[in-house]
Amino acid sequence: MIAMKLKKSLNKLRDKIFHKIHTGNLVYNTCWEDPRIDRELMRLDVDSQVVMITSAGCNALDYLLDNPQAVHAIDMNPRQNALLELKKAFFRNTDHETLFRFFGNGYAEDAQEVYASRLRNQIPFFAQDFWDKRINFFTKKKKKSFYYCGTSGSFAWLFTKYLKSHGKLYPTILQLLEAKSLAEQEQYYAFIEPRLINKFTIWTMNRHVTLSLLGVPRQQRQLILDEYRGGIAEYIADNFRRVFTAIPIHDNYFWRVYLTGHYTPDCCPNYLVETNFQPLKEREGRLKTYTTTISQFLKDNPGKYTHFVLLDHQDWMSHYAPDLLKEEWELILQNSAPNAKILLRSASPKVSFLPEFVKERLEIETVETARLHPLDRVGTYGSVLFATILPEKTKAVSKKVSQSLQPKAE
């Protein structure tokens, strides 16, 4: 009994730490979901109305390249929306060179001046309040990158400091990032793996504070421990090995920015590619931000949306707030266009938390997701689910047919 009470108290403390980190800081300064896979699955077009979670806004901008009718970016953390609003302002009132200095290099000596003269009046008041105090994220002393600020960025900075303190480890990682073939990648990673995956790093990754900095709540960590055969240690080792040896590294901008603090013109998110600047400049007005929950957005903005990109937030909802999970799905089903698409990710190898009434309405795609998930350049998720929402009448017709096949009573 005492042990149970202590565990309950400890879990409450962990949740408070996670809540404190997430409600007081910019958590994500770059997206950690691969939009190349998203876009291949979703196949957006001019009629698409996308509802998604903002995160750092990189993928919301990426989706605009498929010319959808609208993208609605929703996040409970206003700082994430402030980041996307700043990015949008660059397209309205600067040029590609300026955008890339800030978000490609992660550092701009004239950040204060550019912000004051060309950006501040282009963003909403809530975003002004945030960036008035933090535009120095781009002008840190010793050229500390923007990508090493915020919570996940701070962990990335500490992680690279650790790597640089271990002899040839960091130089070999830089060589890996420039590898021209999978054979080269395997050669470099054979040297890196035993020095990267060790008792200290595994201990660090098992700490709740570490995972909170990375945006991983207690419930999601528990999913890995419960459902992944080797727990956190093997989960990390397997994912790293796949990302760094089985997938070409040349365009893996996710790990490049995490390990170096910057992108390159040949290895960066699509919104930073020079030829994409003009199309995004013309379309950024179709991208709107909302500081709220998915459920509240759908209550306030009822409609027939074609795509829902839910990231991995239902992992924690399934454990922490099952009633809210049920409500969110009810609102999604009520506000979905015919054959609307669902895209979500999970730390678990298999999504097992869907309510029964949701399973009845989803036609889950397995062939394409099985092909694409192993190609995910991020490699931090156990699974991806992509599904079509079936019309409610389909369920009713199926039930009617099933009843008609039952033997009649004599």
How are the secondary structure elements laid out?
Blueprint: H1 2-24, H2 35-42, E1 49-53, H3 58-64, E2 70-75, H4 78-93, H5 96-103, H6 111-119, H7 125-134, H8 150-164, H9 169-177, H10 182-196, H11 199-205, H12 208-213, H13 218-227, H14 231-245, H15 253-260, H16 277-283, E3 287-291, H17 294-300, E4 305-309, H18 313-320, H19 322-334, E5 336-346, H20 356-359, E6 362-365, H21 367-372, E7 383-389, H22 392-404
Global outline:
globular
Q: Domains counted in the coordinates: how many? A: 1
- Rg, Cα atoms, Å: 22 Å
Helix proportion:
40-55%
Strand order of the largest sheet: 3-2-1-4-5-7-6
Count of extended strands: 7
Residues in β-strands, percent:
5-15%
How confident overall, as mean pLDDT?
87
Describe the fold and architecture.
The protein has 410 residues and is α/β, with parallel strands linked by helices. The chain has one domain (21-395). The protein is built from 22 helices and seven strands. It has helices at 2-24, 35-42, 58-64, 78-93, 96-103, 111-119, 125-134, 150-164, 169-177, 182-196, 199-205, 208-213, 218-227, 231-245, 253-260, 277-283, 294-300, 313-320, 322-334, 356-359, 367-372, 392-404, and strands at 49-53, 70-75, 287-291, 305-309, 336-346, 362-365, 383-389.
